[in-house]
Design a protein that fits this description.
By secondary structure, the chain is an all-alpha fold. The protein has one domain. It has a two-stranded parallel ribbon. The longest helix is centred in the first third of the chain and has 34 residues. It is globular and about 55 Å long.
Length: 262
C-alpha cells in the first residue's frame, strides 16, 4: 500500500468525526433552545429523534470522507485553490468568495433536491429525510446514504475551482450548518420583519422551508429563494399553527403522493 493511502484514510476518518461532533453540537444547541423557547414542541418524538440522529451520524461519516481526502490533498499535495495568506488575493474578495460558494452550493442543492422529489429518487432515498413528521433540530443531516453523497461532494469539489481563504471557508461551513439546522427546528428564529420583509423574499428561513415539509413539494432551495422564483416552485411561507400530530398526518399523505409522482 502506498504510504499516502493510510494518511488519506486517517484524514477522512478524522474529518468524519469532526462533522459528527459539529452536527451533535449544532443540533444539540438548537434542541436546547427549542426546549426553552417552545417547551413541549418535541414531546412524544423520542423515537423519531433517535432515528434522525442515527441517519445523521451515518451521513456525517459520508460527508467526512471526501472532505478529509481533499484536506489531505490540500496539505500534502497542494491540490486545491484553498489559501491561508490573507493577502494572496485582494481583501474585497473574501466576502465575494463566501457569496460565490453559497450561490454555487444553493444551485447544486436546488437541482439535486428537486431531483430527489422525482418518484424513484424519493422512494429510494429522500423519503428518509421526510420520515421526520414534522422535522426537529436533529433532522438537518437525516439523509439516506445516496442523498448524503450528493451533499458531501459539493463543497470539496468547489475548492478545486473557486479560490477561497481558509477562514472564509469556515464561514461558509458555519452558515451551512446553522441554516441547515435552523430551518428544521419547527419554529422561526428570525424576526417577523425579516421573514415577511424584503430580505425574507430572497432568503430561505424556517417558515419558508416548513412549507416544503408540510406539502412535500416546492421550496427546494437552501439559502436563497431565487431558483424557486425562477422555476415557479416557490410556494411562499408556511404557517406554524399545525400541531405535530397534524403535521405527521398531513406529511404521511403528502409523502404517499410524492412517492407516486402525484
Amino acid at each position: 500500500m502506498p504510504p499516502a493511502i493510510p494518511l488519506m484514510l486517517w484524514s477522512a476518518l478524522a474529518m468524519s468525526a469532526i462533522v459528527a461532533v459539529r452536527y451533535l453540537l449544532a443540533s444539540g444547541a438548537f434542541a436546547l433552545a427549542t426546549a426553552r423557547a417552545r417547551p413541549g414542541l418535541y414531546a412524544g418524538m423520542a423515537r423519531q429523534i433517535r432515528r434522525e440522529i442515527t441517519w445523521s451520524l451515518l451521513s456525517a461519516l459520508i460527508y467526512g470522507i471526501p472532505a478529509g481526502i481533499v484536506a489531505w490533498g490540500w496539505q500534502a499535495q497542494d491540490w486545491t485553490r484553498l489559501y491561508t495568506d490573507v493577502h494572496a488575493l485582494p481583501l474585497w474578495y473574501l466576502p465575494v468568495s463566501v457569496l460565490l460558494y453559497l450561490l454555487a452550493h444553493d444551485t447544486w442543492f436546488y437541482w439535486t433536491h428537486r431531483l430527489m422529489h422525482r418518484p424513484w429518487w424519493f422512494r429510494t432515498a429522500h423519503a428518509v429525510h421526510h420520515d421526520s413528521r414534522p422535522p426537529t433540530a436533529w433532522a438537518a443531516m437525516s439523509f439516506h446514504p445516496w442523498e448524503a453523497l450528493t451533499g458531501a461532494i459539493v463543497i470539496p469539489a468547489l475548492v478545486f475551482v473557486i479560490p477561497i481563504h481558509a477562514a472564509a471557508l469556515g464561514v461558509v461551513l458555519a452558515i451551512m450548518t446553522v441554516m441547515g439546522v435552523a430551518n428544521h427546528i419547527g419554529w422561526e428564529i428570525f424576526p417577523r420583519g425579516i421573514v415577511h420583509g424584503a430580505l425574507g423574499r430572497w432568503l430561505i428561513t424556517a417558515t419558508h422551508h416548513h412549507q416544503h415539509h408540510h406539502v412535500y413539494r416546492g421550496n427546494y432551495g437552501l439559502y436563497f429563494r431565487f431558483w424557486d422564483a425562477l422555476c415557479g416552485t416557490d410556494l411562499g411561507l408556511g404557517t406554524w399553527h399545525e400541531t405535530a400530530r397534524a403535521g405527521a398526518r398531513d406529511g404521511a399523505r403528502a409523502s404517499s403522493h410524492a412517492a407516486h409522482g402525484q
